[in-house]
Amino acid sequence: MTNILDNYNINLLKGIIICKESGEYLVDLILDSDINPVLLSSFVGALSLFGKDNLGKIEEITIKGLDVEMIIVSKHKLILIAILDKKFRKYNLREEAEKALDNFYNFYKNEIDECQYVSKFESFKKIMLMQIIEYFDKLKEKDNQQPIEDFGFFTEAIKKMKKEKLN
């Protein structure tokens, strides 16, 4: 799986976890071995239940101040947790998270509540991986569309540096 990602700055993405609102772990795509997806999904589930019982339904949580940032999005009684390096560019990230939750829900809506073996969700990792690749492609395309100002003599050198940075 990581061979596919070698062309992308994927080390900025530490992992993605999908769980139920209650915190029951369903599936993950963990790229950093220091992350325990089951513990993290339980923690986020507890936050979600606390919010629902005390403050109302939580749709999104951002946790900062650690070595990573976590974006937590809720939809379809599911939660997606994205663990990111602080340098990760967040272009329409909430929409991407919702799209992943929509896809997961559409594929497995009849099995989510009755599921005793989360291994049946393993095939969804490939879908998450493809969505991640599409996301990084969108970022590259967005970078390529940004015009470079005229810096006179240095304009061509700046274009070359920008192109090298993207590759």
Overall shape: globular
Residue runs with pLDDT of under 50 for 5 or more positions: none
In angstroms, what separates the terminal alpha carbons?
20 Å
Strand order of the largest sheet: 2-1-5-4-3
Structural class: alpha+beta
**Average pLDDT:** 75
**Helicity range:** 40-55%
In short:
With 167 residues, the protein is an alpha+beta fold. 43% of the residues lie in helices and 20% in strands.
Question: What do these coordinates show?
Answer:
The chain has 167 residues and is an alpha+beta fold. Helix content is 43%, strand content 20%. The protein has five helices and five strands. The protein has helices at residues 2-5, 37-54, 93-108, 124-145, 155-166, and strands spanning 13-20, 25-30, 60-63, 68-75, 78-85. The chain has a five-stranded antiparallel beta sheet. A hairpin with a 4-residue loop joins strand 3 (60-63) and strand 4. The longest helix has 22 residues, at 124-145. It is globular and about 60 Å long.
Question: What is the secondary structure topology, with strand pairs?
Answer:
Layout: H1 2-5, E1 13-20, E2 25-30, H2 37-54, E3 60-63, E4 68-75, E5 78-85, H3 93-108, H4 124-145, H5 155-166
Antiparallel strand pairs: 1-2, 1-5, 3-4, 4-5
